[in-house]
Amino acid sequence: MDARPEAVKPDRQALSIPDNSGGGSCFRSGCHPPGFALDYIRSRAYLAPTWPEEYWPARDATATPEQFALTVEGFRSDRTALYELVADPATDLLTTIPSTPGHTILREVHLVGDHNAYHVGELAILRQVMGIWPPGREE
Asked: Angle of helix 35-42 relative to helix 65-87, nearest 10 degrees?
């Protein structure tokens, strides 16, 4: 566990590639980094991002393909770090995380999995509605 004394405010903002619906982008609605949970677990000085401003980029924000790829890479890296934390025999999943109202690592990892599953479902629905499944996909 990281016990950094300074206040930690996550600097993880998903980039957005606008869609044509006027409601943001598929990526904007589907990418909340598991790094928020990592920061919460690791830092006793964790400060939650301001809701909702620091959770998502502005509705009209755009990203280059390279920025999008970096965001996906960061998401995958954070997901791997959570996996490694859980797989580590030294991690006690049921111990209360210091400076939390009784939250455990197991609870936080469960929330990340539940949240990610929700957004995967959203993206699947959007692909279906927009007709953008990969070629060769069978119904």
From this structure: 40
| pTM as predicted | 0.70
> For the segment 28-38, what is each residue's pLDDT rounded down to a tens digit?
444 556 788 89
Nearest-angstrom CA–CA distance, 43 and 112: 17
For residue 30, which of 50, 57, 49 has the smallest C-alpha distance?
57
CB 57 within 8 A of CB 68: no
Q: Which residues contact 22 (CB under 8 A, 6 or more apart)?
A: none
Distance CA 13, CA 32 (A): 8
Closest to 45 measured CA to CA, from 88, 99, 89 = 99
Q: In whole angstroms, how large is the CA radius of gyration of the chain? A: 17
Encoding tokens for residue 136?
């060769």
